Here is the input.
Amino acid sequence: MRSTRRRSGILLAASIAVAGLAAPVGISVAGRAGAGASGSDAPTPDPAGAECRTSVRGSRVVAYCHNPYPSTDRVQLHTECRRWWDIDADTAPVDVGPGRTVRLDDRCWKEVGSAWVTHGVQDAA
Here is the structure.
């Protein structure tokens, strides 16, 4: 009779241990299944937009923008001059088609304070 109690105790302890180890796996699987079924996750957008490299030398700014994606990107170079009397400038927007590279340039009379490129991704037509 003692061996039956001992065996029952061992089986009970083993089943508790297995349940304790299996519970996190079951919760994880249920969480993944529930997240996909609910549809609450927003779809990830397709990658788009040109990669631009900007360099400043003295009073001149040059930016090269390459677009490796299938959508067209509209880029524009903005230059802010350091001196208060020097006029800040923006280039005209340029469309960068898929697989294309464009060069944008601008200048200040004296030093360049900062320069950046803005993007406006458009759908392929």
